[in-house]
Amino acid sequence: MSRSDEVNKMTENVYKGILDQFNPSLKNFVTMGKHYEKALTGVTVAAKGYFDGLVKLGELASDSQGSKELGDTLFQMAEVHRQIQVQLEDVLKLFHSELLSQLEQKLELDIKYLTPLSLQCIIKVTYLLLLCLCSNQIYLYSPSYIS
Fold first, then answer.
1. CB 123 within 8 A of CB 12
2. Domain spans of the chain, in order of start
3. Helix, strand, coil proportions of the chain in percent (round to 5)?
4. Domain IMD spans what residues (predicted)?
5. Handedness of CA 127, 128, 129, 134 (dihedral sign)
6. Which site from 16, 26, 44, 138 is most exposed, i.e. has the minimal number of CB atoms within 10 Å?
7. How far is CA 74 from its chain centroid?
8. Is 36 left (phi over 0), alpha (psi -120 to 50) or beta?
């Protein structure tokens, strides 16, 4: 087997590895990320209910003289909890836009452009480029090179 055949086989194995192993794993990772995002969104909804409950308890406690301190403490807890929720919502937005959406777009592009037909074309072009480099010759691209 010649050096160019070895390089061609290695290139083909890399692309097949991307199609057969990496992309399905990445797709699974994106799916799990979406489930995680959905779960955190559910936690956010529940936390808002908890926050509203703390505020109501604080209001009730503040109305009476004996439990005014308790009411103030509940208001402080509610405020801290609200700030944490705002931060969590911001992190969720970033998680979605910066990670999940980007990975999903890249995965779709990989699937679109690394299909078996385009994979064969990429392998042939890569093989021809390697042949040109190995023989120290430069050829202009021509559709006739790809059969």
1. yes
2. 3-133
3. 90, 0, 10
4. 1-113
5. positive
6. 138
7. 38
8. alpha
Q: CA 83 to CA 70: how far, in whole Å? A: 20
Q: How far is CA 40 from the centre of its chain?
A: 16
Q: What is the pLDDT along the chain (147 residues), one digit of tens a residue?
A: 677 777 777 777 777 777 777 778 888 888 999 999 999 889 888 988 988 998 898 888 888 888 888 888 888 999 999 999 999 999 989 988 888 898 888 888 877 776 665 666 666 766 666 666 666 554 444 444 444
Q: How many CB atoms lie within 10 A of CB 37?
A: 16
The CATH number of 3-133 is 1.20.1270.60
Return the half-sphere exposure (C-beta side, CA atoms, 13 A cut-off) of residue 74: 19
The amino acid occupying position 122 is I
Owner of token pair 């093989």: 127
* CA nearest neighbour of 144 among 120, 128, 133: 128
